[in-house]
Amino acid sequence: MPRAETPSASGTSLWRHGDFRRYLTGQAASVAGSSITQMALPVLAVLHLDATTAQVAWLSFLGQLPPALLALHAGALADRHSKRRQMITGDLVSATVLATVPVSAALGTLTLTQLMIVAVVQGAASVLHDAAAISLLPSLVERSLIQRSNSRVGALFAVAATAGSHLGAALTALLGPARALLGDVASYLISAVCTARIQTAEPARAHPETRRLRGEIAEGLRYVRGDDRLWTLTLVNATTSLALGLLNTLWALYLLRSLAMSATAFGVVLGLGALGAAAGALTAPALASRFGPGPMMLAALAITPLTQLPLLLASPGLDWQITIGAALFLQLACAGAAGTTQRSIRQIITTTGMQARMQAVSTWLTSGARPVAAVLAGGLGTWIGVRPALTAGTLLLLVPLVVLARSPIRALRQMPDPPASALPSPPPARTSFSDVPAPARTDNARPDRSLGGDAL
């Protein structure tokens, strides 16, 4: 079916693309709602259920476990079945299981065990939803518009996450943490309604559903490993996730305890970081067009370790707090610009029937790196101290820089051409960058500066 309301790459604004607006509205609502839960759930566990430190750690661990275990399966399912149906199912399951928390709290039957079960089920449902949501975008817009689309998505998500955190704090103060979760329940319902209203027909599945899921997962792994561009960018994502996971585990503790930062100042610093992520995502198309996607991503990865230096050198005081806030703004701006660009490249060069599995491989590796990073951060922080552990995390940020610098993709001057076929073929032979033709620059690749990414 031909797409309705599809804008040209150089003409109609993306905001006039009805299905893109519905997609963006639903996903932004879901991001904001998830931020409410991230704010309210720990408060509920600690202050109302008297959870110990170990129990809070288990609650966090169980919430992070489903992506590491289920991402590959969710990606294969999304390439096999309707992506919109999978997104709606994930939203409704999440809304249902999360709604049991305020109901149980009102009845006086809420327990930590229930919270842990909710964390696991909601995490699994979110994996199903996200695998389909990320891979649906390339079927909603023309491939020449993917970079601009990801730019808008990344910027709005950064703002939505910050707004959700503030809303979660307000709802927790006004209604209590259990009833505050109803805000996230509502966000899942909004997401489901917006997804159901998307009218663009999804591409036909290439393989019958009688194929074994394990075979399709293996096909996705071979597909990513067989293309040097996909494999390089996936490794960059995974190694960045490991380094940032280590840093983020200790970051708040270091600021609040070692640098005696107040809760208000900490919130302002986080707000500056969110603004940086939005700014980076919005400017990514223009930067990639001017300097080339490869050099731009390489510069962003080179700047990122330098933004950690103020944190390592800081001492308590307002001046250092301002410096740390500015450094975080720059760090997340780099992450937003590089992340938006690398995701766009991966979506452009991946065939239609492999979109979800390609993304699932990246999600699997990055999600698997986070628990490892958390354990590593705890061990290093205990054995050598928090500041030396943060130094180790900063040094780890050099690994993705080296991975990209050693790959010919560092010299990519223009966004690549999409594949010749819209449907997947057998797993490709290992691709050499020298065999990839350089696409001609056209007006369709130029970003719309009047309109507003995606962090690594």
Give a verbal description of the structure.
With 456 residues, the protein is mostly helical. The chain has helices at residues 18-48, 53-80, 83-107, 112-140, 146-175, 177-180, 182-196, 213-225, 228-258, 263-291, 293-306, 309-313, 318-349, 355-383, 386-396, 398-405. Helix 3 packs antiparallel against helix 4, helix 10 (263-291) packs antiparallel against helix 11 and helix 11 packs antiparallel against helix 13. The longest helix is centred in the last third of the chain and has 32 residues, at 318-349. It is globular and about 55 Å long. Residues 1-11 and 422-456 have low confidence and may be disordered.
The assembly state of the depicted protein chains is single chain
Number of helices: 16
β-strand number: 0
Shape: globular
Unreliable spans are 1-11, 422-456
Note the run of SSEs as H and E: HHHHHHHHHHHHHHHH
Query: What portion of residues is helical?
Result: over 70%
**Major beta sheet summary:** none
Report, as a whole number of angstroms, the end-to-end distance.
34 Å
Round the mean pLDDT to the nearest integer and report it.
Answer: 80
| Rg from Cα | 22 Å
Q: Structural class, please? A: mainly alpha
Strand content: under 5%
Short description:
The protein contains 16 helices and no strands. It is mainly alpha-helical.
